[in-house]
Design brief:
By secondary structure, the chain is an all-alpha fold. Helices cover 73% and strands 0% of the residues.
Length: 240
């Protein structure tokens, strides 16, 4: 019953995340146009980072209220592989990941219904823009960097929560910009599945190879690299 409850929480949180994520681009455009800085890339990125910080903070608070819900299978895998998510198990992930994918579909379908027509062209979601294997490598590398940044920032970074989230938002926005000409990018299999379903691209090898398998590999490698750089202290070391 606990796993089912967690899966429901994941589905709700993922739907909210996928619904809200495209609004970052919309509000960045609105604000930058209002300030007449839309041609200044550093300024627009700064606006996006601060909007992303606010979004992640709100989503984190909702996730806590839902009992520790998650909206990204990649980060769950990374935290599990790094030993930082003791409540996770292979069984729980097997139940929660489909729920997150379903939440991704619900979020993508919902935002498509309510977004003003003038902004609908911005709702394409992540999609492959390069050769298949190049896209898989790109998505894997980007997810590796994001997962490693998450582990370092949350595990070894500043104690202030807002600063942690701001640093994570900066890393995420930077990676999205860097990977925009390759895979979107997504770095979140549930988000990728939601948009693939909406665009009828959910039942092909490309989706699972590029947006599921590669991110999972990148997330696991990031966890192993984190554990190599920051080995857990033994009981003897803690007592000393």
């Amino acid at each position: 019953m606990g796993v089912i409850k967690a899966a429901i929480g994941d589905a709700i949180l993922t739907s909210l995340w996928v619904f809200s994520l495209p609004l970052l681009g919309v509000f960045t455009r609105i604000i930058s146009t209002f300030l007449d800085v839309q041609t200044l890339l550093p300024v627009t990125l700064f606006i996006s980072i601060n909007l992303a910080t606010l979004l992640v903070l709100v989503i984190s608070l909702i996730g806590s209220a839902l009992g520790g819900a998650s909206f990204n299978p990649s980060t769950t895998v990374s935290l599990f592989a790094a030993g930082l998510k003791p409540d996770a198990s292979l069984f729980s992930m097997a139940v929660r990941f489909p729920a997150q994918a379903a939440g991704g579909v619900a979020g993508a379908m919902a935002i498509m219904q309510v977004i003003p027509t003038e902004y609908k062209h911005m709702l394409k979601g992540p999609y492959l823009k390069v050769e298949l294997h190049s896209g898989a490598i790109a998505e894997g590398v980007l997810t590796f960097v994001l997962s490693f940044a998450l582990l370092v920032i949350m595990g070894k970074g500043p104690k202030n929560l807002i600063l942690k989230i701001w640093l994570l938002a900066m890393a995420t926005v930077g990676l999205v910009f860097a990977g925009s000409s390759y895979t979107g990018p997504s770095m979140n299999p549930a988000n990728a599945f939601g948009w693939a379903f909406v665009n009828n691209r959910h039942n092909n090898w490309e989706l699972f190879y590029v947006y599921w398998i590669s991110p999972f590999i990148g997330a696991i490698l990031a966890a192993w690299f984190f554990k190599f750089l920051f080995p857990a202290k033994t009981n003897k070391e803690k007592k000393a």
